Amino acid sequence: MEKTMKSAAKLFVVIALVTSASGAVAQNAQRGSESTKAFKAADMSMMKNMDAAPYTGNPDVDFRTHMIPHHEGAIAMAKVGLKYATDAETKKMAQKIIDDQEKEVADMQAWLKKNGH
Fold first, then answer.
1. Pairing with 86, which of 17, 61, 63, 116 sits 20 to 30 Å away (CA)?
2. Domain housing 85
3. Farthest CA pair distance, the chain
C-alpha cells in the first residue's frame, strides 16, 4: 500500500509538471506567433521600401536612399523585439539599435537634403 501511495504521489507530480510545462509552451507559442507576424510585417515593409527607392547612378545617393529603408526596417524589428522579447540583453540590444539607427537615418536624410536630393 505504501509503495502504491508513493507511486501515485510521483505520478501526480509528473502530471502537474507536464501540465504546467505545456501551459508555458502554449503561451510561448502564442507569443511567438504574434511576434513572428510582427517581424514578418516589418521585413516585408522594409523590402518593399528598399525596392521602391530608385537608383540614380550616384553611389553616395544610392547608398543613403537604400540604407534609410534598411535602417527603418531594423528599427521596426527592434521595436518588435522590445515588445515581445523577455531577455534583458535582447531588449537592451533592441533599444540600442533603435537609438543608433534613428540617428543614422536622420544623418542620411540631412546629407541628402544638404546635397539637393
1. 17
2. 35-114
3. 89
State the total domains in the chain: 1
* Residue 76 near residue 45, CB atoms below 8 Å: yes
5 domain residue, yes or no: no
- Give me the helix-helix angle, 59-84 and 88-114, nearest 10°: 150
Residue 71 contacts residue 53 (beta carbons within 8 Å) = no
CB 84 within 8 A of CB 38: yes
Structural domain includes residue 7:
no
**pLDDT one-digit tens code per residue, 39-65:** 999 999 999 999 999 999 999 999 999
Note the pLDDT tens digit of each residue in 60-89.
Answer: 999 999 999 999 999 999 999 999 999 999
**Would residue 93 count as lying in a domain?**
yes
Nearest to 78 by CA among 110, 104, 111: 104
